[in-house]
Every structure is written in C-alpha cells, then in structure tokens.
C-alpha cells in the first residue's frame, strides 16, 4: 500500500526491546510519510524515562489501544501477548506488522478476520533472506523446504522446549542438535528464537511441511540460518550470518533494520523485489 502524497501514516510500536526501540528511534529521526504516535512497554515508568532521554514524543498506551492511535501497528512483544495487540489492530482494519511470526501460526484465524475488515498483515523479512525467491518459487511447486538454524548456546537458553526436557546448554563444548521437526512445532518450542522458520513456512509450503533443525554451537558468535529449497523452478540454498543484538542475543541486529525497510516500502515510490 502506498501512502497518498498528502497523507502521513501514523505508526505505533508495541514493545521497546531489541527490535522495537531501534525502530522507534528511527521513526523519531524521521521516515518519509510516517510519524510515530504511540508505543507500549511492560514497564511504563522505564519507557517514559527512555523516551524523554531520547527526546522522543509518543503516547504510552496499552497493547489493545494502539490500533486506535495509528494506521500501522508493529508488534514486537513476547509471543504470549501477541493476540492482545494483533486482534484490535486487525478488527480496526489497520496495517499490522508482526515480529512474533511464530505466534501468528497459532492465530491464523486473524488472517481470515483481516479479509473481512480490510486489514493487512505484512510480515517483515526479519533475520532471514531470500523470502522473495521462496514466494516466487511457491507460485510454482515447492517439493521441500528446510531451515537449519545454528546459534550460540546463550541465544537458546530458556526456550520452553529445552526447559520441558531439562536440557541445559551450560558448558557445551561441541555443536548439539536440540531440535529436528516441523516449523510449527519449532515455533512453539522456541518462540523467541525461530520466527525465521515461521516466516519461511508462510512464504513457502506451510508450517507442517517446512522442516527445521536447531543447533546450539559454542563456536559461533553469530546466528546462522541456512535455507534449502527444492522446487520445480529452482534449487535455492542460502545462508545468512546475523550479528546478535547486544540487548537480546536471541534477536539479530538485522531484524529492526528489516522493519524499517518494510516501513519505507509502504510509502516508497520505487520498490525493489517482488
């Protein structure tokens, strides 16, 4: 959707963490056709201080109230809060940018709801690459899709899948495969780690046919994702090495930049990529 030249789109950001805060700062610096109007955060006092120190003006609101304050709602909260921000945005017919893409897999009824309300759900590329190519291949036939994710152990500690199985990565001295299954199950077991798998699944052949491997590798200092696609139009093999965020090692530094690029695309005259 292109913004009319005489209209500025209001943007609300849900979450001021490793993704939300860089997006808020860039919006405050100025993006053509966009203005920051509201944010939400778990600690309102801390958020108020942070905004004041950055000279940023924005209303601090509850997740469910963002839709009434913006045309574009960005979700960057823990997956448990996904529906609280997503449902009002979609009911109000807003443009909704989810970062907890794995949570979207469990709330696909919202896609049908968006069709009725005129809302748009736009999933930023995030920490992955090649989604344009995967979407193009999906217009033909994709036989198989696999994502192999390797992360430093600290970026996986505390994942529900590991906690439930009493798997500790402390003192790990060699690579360990901690998960091998569907993208749907991986997104549930590692909600803060593999939104990339959910995005790949939505771009391609779905969360149940998309396979996911997750490795903890103590030799790494980057989050490494390798995509392998077999399709009638092409064989795709792509690898990306993302620098982890200093604030949250589960998130790559590229993710907030992807959101900013997505916002620019919403109002841009020249668009590159399908």
Task: Label this structure with key terms.
274 residues; alpha/beta; Rossmann fold; 10 helices; globular
Describe this structure in words.
It is a single chain. Helix 3 packs parallel to helix 5 and helix 8 (183-189) runs antiparallel to helix 9. This protein has helices at 20-29, 44-53, 82-91, 101-104, 109-117, 131-138, 160-164, 183-189, 195-203, 254-267; strands at residues 9-14, 34-40, 59-60, 72-75, 95-98, 120-121, 142-151, 176-182, 210-216, 223-231, 235-242. With 274 residues, it is α/β, with parallel strands linked by helices. A 6-stranded parallel beta sheet has the order 3-2-1-4-5-6, with helices on both faces. A 5-stranded mixed beta sheet has the order 8-9-7-10-11. It has 2 domains: 9-126 and 254-267, 3-Layer(aba) Sandwich (Rossmann fold); 131-242, 2-Layer Sandwich (Dihydrodipicolinate Reductase, domain 2).
Q: Determine Rg (CA atoms, Å).
A: 19 Å
Query: How many domains comprise the coordinates?
Result: 2
What is the name of the CATH class of the largest domain?
Alpha Beta
Following the backbone from N to C, one meets helices and strands in this order, namely EHEHEEHEHHEHEHEHHEEEH
Poorly predicted ranges:
1-5
| Helix share bin | 25-40%
Strand share of the residues? 15-25%
Q: Tally the helices.
A: 10
Strand tally: 11
């Amino acid at each position: 959707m292109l913004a009319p030249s005489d209209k500025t789109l209001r943007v609300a950001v849900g979450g001021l963490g490793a993704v939300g805060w860089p997006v808020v700062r860039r919006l405050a610096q100025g993006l053509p056709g966009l203005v920051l109007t509201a944010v939400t955060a778990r600690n309102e006092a801390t958020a108020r201080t942070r905004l004041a120190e950055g000279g940023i003006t924005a209303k601090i609101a509850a997740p469910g109230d963002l839709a009434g304050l913006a045309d574009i709602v960005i979700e960057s909260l823990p997956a448990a809060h996904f529906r609280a921000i997503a449902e009002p945005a979609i009911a109000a017919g807003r443009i909704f940018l989810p970062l907890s893409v794995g949570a979207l897999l469990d709330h696909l009824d919202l896609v049908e709801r968006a069709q009725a309300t005129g809302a748009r759900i736009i999933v930023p590329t995030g920490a992955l690459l090649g989604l344009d190519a995967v979407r193009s291949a999906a217009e033909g036939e994709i036989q198989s899709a696999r994502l192999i994710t390797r992360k430093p152990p600290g970026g996986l500690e505390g994942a529900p899948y590991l906690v439930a199985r009493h798997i500790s990565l402390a003192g790990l001295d060699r690579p360990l495969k901690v998960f091998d299954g569907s993208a749907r199950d991986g997104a549930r077991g590692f909600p803060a780690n593999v939104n990339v798998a959910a995005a790949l699944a939505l771009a391609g052949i779905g969360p149940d046919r998309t396979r996911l491997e997750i490795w903890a590798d103590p030799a790494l200092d980057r989050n490494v994702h390798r995509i392998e696609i077999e399709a009638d139009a092409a064989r795709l093999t792509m690898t990306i090495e993302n620098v982890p965020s200093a604030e949250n090692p589960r998130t790559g530094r590229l993710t907030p930049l992807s959101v900013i690029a997505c916002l620019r695309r919403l109002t841009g005259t020249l668009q590159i990529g399908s």
